[in-house]
Amino acid sequence: MNIRRHIITPALAGASVLGLLALSACSPADGARTEGGKLKVTASFYPLEFLAQQIGGKHVEVTDLTKPGVEPHDLELTPKQTGQLGESGAIVYLKGLQPAVDAAVAQSGAQHVADAAALTSLEKHGTEVDGHHHTTGDNHSHSESEGGKDPHIWLDPVKYAEVAKGVNKTLAQADPAHKADFQKNTDALVKKLDGLNREFRDGLKKRSSDTFLTTHAAFGYLAERYGLTEEAISGLDPEAEPSAHRIRDLHTLAREHHVSTVFFETIANPATAKALAGDLHLKTDVLDPLEGITGKSRGKDYFGVQRANLAALQKALGSK
Q1: Whose CA is closest to 125, among 139, 110, 113?
Q2: What angle is formed at CA 155 by the lines to CA 282 and CA 283, rounded to 5 degrees?
Q3: Which tens digit of pLDDT belongs to each residue from 7-39?
């Protein structure tokens, strides 16, 4: 898929040799900055673009490799985008989510790279993630298919805050002159994420059901954080087709756990979720995995969509 972005190239031809040496001693190479002096940051998809923008503020120009509305797992890079990674002052990505990006980052030669997967702990999740039995370092997720290391860490505000702190360190290394501003912005962002965590915790405390059904297994970390059980139609891959056995299991689970709603997503195909809901005479609603912001998103940014997700879960789980 061709996803193109305009790259601004700085004009430093008139700079003196001494000036260039002074610049390189305390800041990224000349190609890693815009004409206006901002650090060029490349992010692999929306949640990491949001972090880079929030932390970098006015000192960065962030380019997102994944166009809004494109499923991140399916991303293919153009030669221009691959070249752009090599010109970046900093790269923020999540290893294991987008194979094309993983390969291009490895070949980019970029010095300042933040891998979100290395900034917090990843766990193996499958089609069922039971937050009641979860303890740190333990894994009580179950799956009959499509299990693996779950990359969806950004949907847990606590893990997302851990990633933010790591991105802060990478930007500070790439642009030491603005380290204090990056730290200030990170502190403010982490404070907001702490607040969001409290909103989820308090908002889901009193509920009549713990189990929610989703299209794909994106909400395992969120389920663990707040003591819920996620049952996914397919596994970690949103394009995977569920087996007949899995569909039968979901029929049983929905009845036993008084499930009221089947959640589908704004990007992935909702056909299977809607068919299951029709068979079981259940309602449907959107639970957004926040892989991109589009005109269909129930919010303009990460916080807006997460609060919409909370409201949807409260309604589906009978929160009081």
Answers
A1: 139
A2: 10
A3: 333 333 333 333 333 333 344 455 799 889 999
Rounded-to-integer distance, Cα 72 and Cα 116, Å? 15
Find, among 237, 300, 290, 230, the residue nearest to 265 by Cα: 290
Contact 20, 12 (CB under 8 A): yes
Read off the pLDDT of residues 162-211 as tens digits, 9 standing for 90 and up: 999 999 999 999 999 999 999 999 999 999 999 999 999 999 999 999 99
10-12-18-20 Cα dihedral, nearest 10 degrees: 20
Residue 272 contacts by C-beta under 8 Å, 6 or more apart in sequence? 215, 233, 234, 241, 242
The per-residue pLDDT for range 290-305, each reduced to its tens digit, is: 999 998 899 999 999 9
CA nearest 92: which of 54, 44, 60?
A: 44
Q: What are phi and psi of 129, to 5 degrees?
A: -130, 115
Q: 3-class SS at 10?
A: coil
pTM comes to 0.85
CA–CA dist 1, 71 (Å, integer):
11
Q: Please give the single-letter amino acid code of residue 196.
A: L
Decide: residue 148, CB within 10 A, 0-12 exposed, 13-18 middle, 19+ buried.
middle
Round to whole Å and give the CA distance between 50 and 215.
24
